[in-house]
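lol ok so funny story. i was supposed to be doing the assay writeup but got distracted and ended up predicting the structure for this chain instead. priorities right. anyway since i did it might as well share w the group, maybe its usefull for someone
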Amino acid sequence: MKIKYLLFTVAFSFLINAVNAQTPAGNSFYVDYPTWNAGTQPPVYFNCGTNNILNTGNELTMEVWVRLYNSTWNQKIMGKMTNTFDNGYVMASQLGQNYSEVWNPGHNEVQAGSSPLDSAWVHFATTFGSGVQLLTYINGEQVGGLPLTSSAITASTNPFIIGIAPWDLTNFQTFGQIDEIRIWSVVRTDQEIKDNMHKHLTGTEPGLVAYWDFNQSSGGNLPDLTGNGNNGTISSGANYWSWTPSYAAVGNDVMYNMSGVEGVWFGKDPSLYNYASTTNGLNIVANIQPKAFDYAVYGHNDSIGTSTSFLPAGAPVDFERTSREWYFNKGGNISADLYFNLSFAAGGGDSLVKNLPVQNYTLLTRDSSNQNFTAVASASSLLANGTVVKFSGVNLQDKFYCIGVGSTQLASVAAVPAWSKQIQLLPNPAQNTITLTNVQDAELSIMDMTGKLISTTKGNALAQKLDVSALDNGMYILRIVKQGEVASKQFVIQK
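and the output, tada:
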C-alpha cells in the first residue's frame, strides 16, 4: 500500500503523441452526436432478433467496450426487455457509471463505479447469478454488487437491441463508439473477465451465446460470430452513424500467451494523470494528450524468481533478470515512466537485489520469447528506500520487458546519449540563474558533489531558466533523464 500511495502522491509527467496509431481491435459502431444534434434525426440501433438463447435464465454475463460521447448521460447500451418492466435485462451508462438492471421479475439495479475519463474507452461487464448476486465491473475491477433472490431472469419476448433502450427504440440513444459485445449464459468470474477482456474471442467459447466484434467496414449488418444466428440489422440509414476504427484495448494474439493480463489506461485530458498499477511488480503513470485515442495494455507471463538466460551481450557474470516478463501492446507512440517494485517483480516471494547503484538496474526488451534481451536504459532513480526502481521517459514498444541487475553497469547503456550533446548550460560559473537549452520533456535534477538531491523539475521549454540563487558557492551536478537515458553536466556557483 505504501508503494501505491507513493505513486499517487508524487508528480509525474511525460508526453504521449498520437502518430501512426494502429487499430488492433478493427472497427466499431460509431454514432456521432454533433451530427445527430444538428437536425431532426431518427434513432439508430441494431435489432439482433428474438432468439430464445438470449433469455439466459439463471445465469448471465454481459460485456462491452464503449467510448461514450458523454459518460454522464443516461445511455442504454444494450438489452432485452419489454415496456412492462418485469422481464429481461439492460446494460447502460449513467453519471459516468456502469448501470445494469435485471428483472426476475422484481427489479434489481446496480449503478456503481466510475469511468476513468469522459470519452475514454472503457470495458463494462455485468454478471447475474440466480440466488447469488448482481455484480458490475469497470476495466476488470468489481465496482458494485447486489444480493439476489433465487429467481431466474424472466424471459423477454422483445428482440435484443444494441444502441438504445430495448423497450422504447426512441429514447436513451447511445452516442460514441461500441465494440466487442459478449453475452454469456454463465457467470464469468472476475479473473475470467480480467484475463479475457483484452483478447479477441473465437466465438466457440463454452457458455458464449452471442458475440459481435463490430469489424464490419460497410453495410448495416452485424454478424453474430457464435453461429447462433443473433445477427443484427441496423434500424436507419442516417448519415450520423458509421463503422469507424476502434482503439479499444483488445490486443493481438500475443495476449493469449500472457498470464494475468493487467494494466490499461486511456484518456484525452492532459490535466489528468492516468495510471495502471498491479501487484505483479510493475506500475505506470501516464499523462495522455487531448484526442490521443491510443491505448496501452500490458500483461505478464507469471513466471517467478530470477533467470540468467537470454541476457544481453557483455553482461557481468553476476547479472540476473526477472524470470517474469511483461508484454506491452499499445497504439500510437507512447512514452511512459515505469516503476518496478524489486520485492514483487520476481514473484513468488523472491526479490532482486536492492540498494545497488541506480545505474546498475537495467531495463531489458526483446521482440519474442526466443531472442536475447537488449538493454534499453539504466534506471533514473531509486524510491521507497531502494525497493522501487524508476525508468523515466521510456518509449514503449510492442515487446517483452524485464529488469536486470548486476554489480556493474551494463556497457551497452553506459555511453553518453547522443541528445546530451545538444544541451547547453550557461553561464558557467553562474550566480543566480542558469539557462538550459534543448531540455524539453526531460527530468532535471540538481545534486551536490556527494550525490544529495537538492531539487527536481521538468524541462518544458526549448530554453529554460533555473533559479539557483539559493545554492552556496561550489560545484554541482545537473542530472538529465530523457527518453529513458541519463546524462549529467557539472556547473559552478560563484557569487
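Helices lie at 2-9, 33-37, 190-196. The chain has three helices and 37 strands.
back to the writeup now i swear
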